[in-house]
Structure formats: C-alpha cells, structure tokens
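Chapter summary example: a protein plus uracil.
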Amino acid sequence: MRLNKFMASSGVASRRHCDEIIAAGRVKINARVCKKLGTQVNPDLDIVTVDNRPIRIRGPFVYYMLNKPTGVVTTVMDPEGRETVMDYIPSNTGKRLYPVGRLDYNTSGLLLITNDGDISQKLMHPSFEFGKTYLATIEGKLSDAEIEKLANGVNIGGFVTSPATVKYVGTKGNDSTYSLTIHEGKNRQVRKMFLSVGYKVKELQRVALGKLQLGDLPVGEYRPLTEQELDYLRNL
Ligand code: URA
C-alpha cells in the first residue's frame, strides 16, 4: 500500500496533506525517516510513525453533517421512542454511528455524526477551545449593555461563561436575532446566557462548529464532510 494511503487510512490527514508530512521528514518506516513520496508499506509488517508516534489503519470512518430539525432527540436510541437524529442519516452503513456532542430537543442546526471516536473525543473535550456559533432569536432587543454582558461572561448558575462574540443579526416584527459564538458547551448554555440577562430564547440554531459551516444545508438533510473539512478537524 502507498505510504500516503496508509497514513490517510490511519486518520492522519488527507492523502495530499500526508505527502507534505512525508516530505517534511516527519514520517519513519521501521525507525528510518522516509521522505520519498510513493513509498510502499506493508500494513501488517511495517511500523510507521508520524512525529515518532506509531499509526495504524483504523476505520473505515464516515463523517456526516446533519442539519438537525427541532423536535428531535440527539441520541442513538430514545427510551421514549421519540424521533432521534439517527433517523435522519443512512442506517445501512453497517457502522456504529453516533452524534458528536448534543443539541437540545428544541435546537436545530449543525450536528456531526461519525463512528470516529478519536475525533469525537477531541472535539468534545472540555479543554478544547472550539468556537460554536448559534443564531438565537428572542422577543425584544438587547441593549448595548446586555450585549456587552453576554460578550464578557455571565453567571449561569455557578458557572461564569468565558468571553463570547455577540453580533446583532436583525429584527423581524418584535423578534431580534443574534449570532453568539461560545467556547464551552455547558448544558443549555446559550438559553441560560440569554435568561441571565432577562430574555427567553424562542429559536436556537447552531450554524458553525469552528470553521465548519452549516451553510445552506436544508433542515433535516445531511451531507458527508468534505476532504478539506476532515483535514481541518484532524489538524485541530
Ligand atoms: N445551548 C443551548 O442552550 N442549547 C443547545 O442545544 C446548544 C447550546
């Protein structure tokens, strides 16, 4: 098997990016640096390391982005028999897929679903500074002081949120929408943040996870992640 294919199948990066890693001298085969693109390895016999860490073929993995509708539970199986996010993606992959993190029953938007435990663990680790962007709609309008409070950090029941980016998006009738980028993922965090300044969130949608964008993916639809998106996640 070609070295870059072996590396990509081990979840290192895309094949093209693996070639760069090889050329940079970061890869060893049986303890010898190998900078030659196109080198063949035997996955059963050769020991390949990247930055001195051994790699092995894992997977095959699948990665989906779903635009979760409201009224759907983020779980693999709901004991109450309600609709789950898994009902929205193909069930015939033969793989044990699960959602990465959680969106509330009443929240819609970007949710990743995969069988790659490493990426899932990485993204969900509390120490991981990963911006999550939401569009929140409330009745009324925030004052500048309230926007500043949300941005600086608010107490949501024993926890003070870290600095967030808050932007006014627009107003329709009595309702205004704000984009909020947070860096933690406490339970019902966005709803609690707005409550802390006196507003109930009427609608909540996640539109970005780091650089991954929901874009115009329709509600209830999914798509596989692109190679660039996967590269981005693997290199975080
Ligand atoms: N914050 C919330 O309040 N709900 C979510 O589903 C996600 C973030």
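Key point: The pocket of uracil is lined by residues 103-104, 107, 188-191, 204 (CB under 6 Å).
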